[in-house]
Design brief:
Elements (H helix, E strand, L loop, with lengths): L4 E2 L5 E7 L2 E13 L2 E6 L6 E2 L22
Antiparallel strand pairs: 1-2, 2-3, 2-5, 3-4
Length: 71
Amino acid sequence: VDAVLVQPNGEKVVWVVKDGKVQRRVVQTGLEGEGRVQILSGLQAGETVAISGQEKLKDGLEVKLQGGEGK
């Protein structure tokens, strides 16, 4: 749930990390509960999303993944 940001206009977005850079992606969500949210569209299985620091991100910004397997 932390990865999905709700914009003032109601649009829901995530930041996808690909090739060391982030890109803003609009998503459609479904069910939410127990710290999870269902993504209906806008994100593919296996894509890596930023879960913290999103307020500082901009399209094309280079990032470094931290922790685990980068997920």
